[in-house]
Amino acid sequence: MQRNASIARMTKETDIRMDFSIDGSGSAKIDTGIGFFDHMLNSFARHGFFDMTLQVKGDLHVDGHHTVEDTGIVLGQAIKEALGDKAGIKRYGSFLLPMDETLVLCAIDLSGRPYLNFEASFLAQQVGSFDTELVREFFYAVSYSAGMNLHLKQMDGRNSHHIIEAMFKAFAKALDEASTADSRIMGALSTKGTIA
Fold this sequence. Notes:
The chain is of the alpha+beta class. It is built from four helices and ten strands; from the N terminus they run βββαβαβββββαβα. The strands form three sheets. It has a four-stranded mixed β-sheet with strand order 1-2-4-3, covered by helices on one side. α1 packs parallel to α4 and α2 runs parallel beside α3. The protein is globular. The protein starts with a strand and ends in an 18-residue tail after the last helix.
């Protein structure tokens, strides 16, 4: 059974179309209008082995906030829809990712309960045309839209590009683990019998 989702979201600020597959090969075709953000989402798809096509038209003449936040909302919706009832999946995933001087920890519980614990500091205000303060906004939107408990912590690092990229890659690896099926798991991995 393929775990896929197609999401469309249109507001006065953004128009977003996404096709997403949990069980992919890391293939991505992404255009958000923000080059560095495209690079991060491509890294997410590649390192998590997710297939994703994404087209975003946002009010970039204002700034990148709506484009980044709304993309996070749509990605969270796609993850939630693609996972379905979450029967048979590991539910938990974590990864400690090094990138040169940077070290980032990501841990996920696909619990159905949204929560973000985000700890990072960026010396640069921008990487390319991407505002670094939007990293937290993106992951907040993903976690709440997907209904996941998401912890992202910068353990070390100074280069803002490296820190952000390590976060996206660590998130990809942790989500790949959490969404993996385990033949020992019957139904949902919960004492409640369901992961809402």
